[in-house]
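stage 2 :: seqdesign
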């Protein structure tokens, strides 16, 4: 990991910024009454789209390619007795654009699970907390003064737990519901930079979610074991503080220009070979081992990367992989379209065959 001290003050913007010029002709009158800067932002793309390219084809690889084929293989069957496992997609892609914030998210079944015809054990969630309809329904709204929040969450079912895919999906939903119930207090804590208040709210939400999960299952809780981590992001562009909470392994990184900062793990937790230790706490049993805190304020142009260990492992341990990803998302690179982001997320690397789930938040100008 290229650990550097973040620079003081602002960084020249390279991406994640809003276009600020041009006319608003061609709106068919639907945007009349909106402030001029909102009309311009809606009509004009925030970023210049990359030029058309040939079909993407086989995902790229950093270093030696894996021996597994780079495509979905076997599938679990309905008659195996686990309906959720039978219908969980091999891959999913998601995203959002809320004011100056742009989100891309992807979850991809690992090579080893594809080879053994097992389902993807990771889950993800991109959703809003707080007042419904706050800021209107269009993609680029004015969230100034809003108490609304964006929740970005990933979960990684523990491989040795037979129902961990159920635990991962349930954890994302249960924690989202509990955090939504405390959305107003969370928004106040983030606006005030109240770390103590945020931690207390996060711990209560995770404990309540774990209790909800335990009450809904008919097998030992350890069978549902899953890690969990999330970012809570204010929609008000004036609030640049983000909250993090998590249980167990995974990653949280900041990409600024082409440099990476590990926001999740101290250097001592990285193994001698650069591969992160796989021993981990997991929900629902380890609900008291929540790690929660406020992050230092983000700067325009930053990219926050929240991920399961299928992605944090190579990102933390493989320099060539880090440089490849930074070239795709950092510095002057535009925010990728969702299908391109899914292709980026599948960048392959030998010996890393677990599920991968990652959510990237591009920070724009408030």
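stage 2 :: out
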């Amino acid at each position: 990991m290229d650990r550097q001290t973040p620079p003081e003050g602002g960084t020249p913007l390279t991406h994640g910024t809003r276009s600020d010029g041009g006319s608003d002709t061609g709106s068919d009158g639907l945007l009349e009454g909106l402030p001029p800067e909102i009309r311009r932002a809606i009509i004009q793309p925030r970023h210049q789209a990359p030029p058309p390219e040939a079909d993407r084809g086989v995902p790229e690889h950093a270093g030696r390619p894996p021996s597994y084929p780079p495509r979905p293989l076997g599938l679990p069957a309905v008659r195996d007795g686990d309906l959720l496992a039978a219908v969980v997609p091999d891959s999913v892609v998601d995203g959002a654009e809320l004011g100056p914030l742009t989100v891309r998210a992807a979850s991809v079944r690992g090579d080893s699970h594809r080879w053994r015809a097992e389902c993807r054990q990771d889950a993800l969630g991109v959703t809003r907390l707080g007042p419904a309809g706050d800021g209107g329904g269009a993609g680029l709204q004015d969230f100034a003064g809003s108490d609304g929040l964006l929740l970005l969450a990933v979960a990684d079912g523990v491989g040795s737990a037979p129902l961990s895919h159920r635990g991962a999906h349930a954890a994302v939903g249960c924690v989202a519901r509990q955090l939504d119930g405390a959305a107003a207090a969370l928004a106040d804590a983030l606006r005030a930079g109240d770390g103590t208040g945020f931690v207390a709210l996060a711990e209560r939400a995770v404990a309540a979610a774990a209790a909800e999960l335990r009450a809904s299952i008919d097998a030992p809780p350890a069978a549902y074991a899953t890690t969990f981590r999330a970012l809570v992001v204010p929609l008000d562009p004036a609030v640049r503080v983000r909250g993090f909470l998590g249980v167990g392994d995974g990653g949280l990184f900041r990409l600024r220009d082409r440099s990476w900062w590990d926001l999740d793990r101290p250097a001592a937790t990285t193994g001698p070979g650069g591969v992160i230790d796989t021993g981990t706490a997991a929900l629902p049993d380890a609900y008291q081992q929540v790690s929660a805190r406020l992050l230092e304020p983000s700067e325009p142009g930053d990219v926050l990367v929240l991920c399961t260990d299928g992605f944090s492992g190579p990102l933390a341990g493989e320099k060539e992989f880090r440089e490849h990803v930074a070239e795709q998302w950092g510095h002057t690179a535009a925010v990728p379209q969702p299908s391109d982001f899914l292709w980026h997320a599948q960048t392959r690397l030998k010996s890393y065959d677990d599920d991968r789930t990652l959510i990237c938040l591009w920070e724009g100008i408030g």
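stage 3 :: structure notes
- The CA atoms of residues 295 and 362 lie 15 Å apart.
- The radius of gyration is 20 Å.
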